[in-house]
Specification:
Layout: E1 8-12, H1 16-19, H2 22-27, E2 32-34, H3 39-50, E3 56-62, H4 70-78, E4 84-88, H5 106-111, E5 117-119, H6 124-135, E6 141-144, E7 166-169, E8 176-180, H7 183-197, E9 202-206, E10 209-211, H8 215-224, E11 228-232, H9 241-249, E12 256-260, H10 271-277, H11 282-292
Parallel strand pairs: 1-2, 1-3, 3-4, 4-6, 5-6, 8-9, 8-11, 11-12
Antiparallel strand pairs: 5-10, 7-9
Length: 295
């Protein structure tokens, strides 16, 4: 995008080697600002550069570190900023880096901002589309990007829209709707295949944007699967994907939502081990499906 639009700039909080924002610095150092470990200042710089749409700004760091700048972020919303924030290394799936760097409350933070669109891509293709859409979305945006190398789900020409989910797996025999995002959509797909082998069919939804959430698709899928929904997120239970889905179905009768999320402050470990330990991997999803079918 930067090659085609000279107004695009990037800035980072001394994590450019991990977020890869430094690639813009390599291409054109005049359009990259190193803000170092001063996230509050970085948000202020981003808002200033985006004023009156002078620049299309992307400010990135580990998602956990945006919590340091929440005052500046909420004030930026009052200023009606168009700044774009990208938070990487989210959730327990970052593994050995440990809980101090595991963003597990970032979705709650940014969902609470009234002018903010929240993207949560699940593979390289949807990530690229999310950044393109963020650059063209009015108001603040936050894109939550994981650390693991995830498999590609979508074709390169797949079309994405703000507020439109993707139904990845669907059949007339589906009995439960699984909703995941980022790393957990891949766990949902693995659980889908395991359950399919035992004769249990599930529908799998990738929301793409957590805010706005695709209420229409979620409700239609819930009705088609007996009112049973399981959400799976690499985030604390409060304020994330599960609660966004619950808000979408709150006025509908006869719908059960079971949330799988990180239930407590985590510890360091290998990503796969932590997904299992905190109950958000394919094994636990399959167990939850069997349990909800008994209700």
């Amino acid at each position: 995008m930067a090659k085609n639009n000279p107004r695009i700039i990037a800035m980072d909080g001394d994590t450019k080697n991990s977020t890869f924002s430094g690639k813009l610095n390599d291409y054109d150092s005049e359009r990259y600002i190193e803000c170092f470990i001063a996230e509050q200042n970085m948000v202020g710089v981003a808002v200033g550069c985006a004023t009156r749409d002078r620049m299309v700004v992307f400010a990135s760091t580990f998602a956990a570190f945006f919590s340091r700048a929440y005052d500046q972020i909420r004030m930026a919303a009052i200023s009606m900023t168009n700044a774009n924030f990208v938070g990487t290394h989210c959730g327990v799936s970052i593994g050995e880096d440990g809980p101090s760097q595991m963003a597990l409350e970032d979705l709650a933070m940014f969902r609470a901002i009234p002018t903010c669109t929240v993207f949560y891509p699940s593979d390289p293709v949807s990530c690229e589309r999310a950044i393109e859409l963020a650059a063209n979305t009015k108001g603040m945006t936050f894109s939550r990007v994981g650390r693991p190398t995830n498999a590609v789900i979508y074709a390169n020409d797949e079309v994405f829209e703000v507020g439109k989910a993707k139904v990845i797996k669907k059949s007339d025999k589906d009995v439960v709707t699984l909703i995941g995002a980022g790393v957990t959509i891949h766990e949902c797909l693995a659980a889908h295949e395991a359950l399919k082998d035992s004769g249990i069919m599930t529908r799998v939804i990738d929301p793409f944007t957590i805010k706005p959430i695709d209420q229409e698709t979620i409700l239609a899928s819930a009705r088609a699967t007996g009112g049973r929904i399981i959400t799976v997120e690499d985030h604390y239970p409060e304020g994330g994907l599960g609660e966004a889905v619950m808000s979408a179905v709150s006025e509908e009768r006869d719908i059960i939502v079971r949330k799988l999320a990180v239930p407590r402050v985590p510890r360091s470990g290998k990503a796969a081990e932590l997904l299992d330990l905190y109950g958000i991997n394919a094994k636990h999803i399959a167990q939850a499906v069997k349990q909800i079918l008994k209700k």
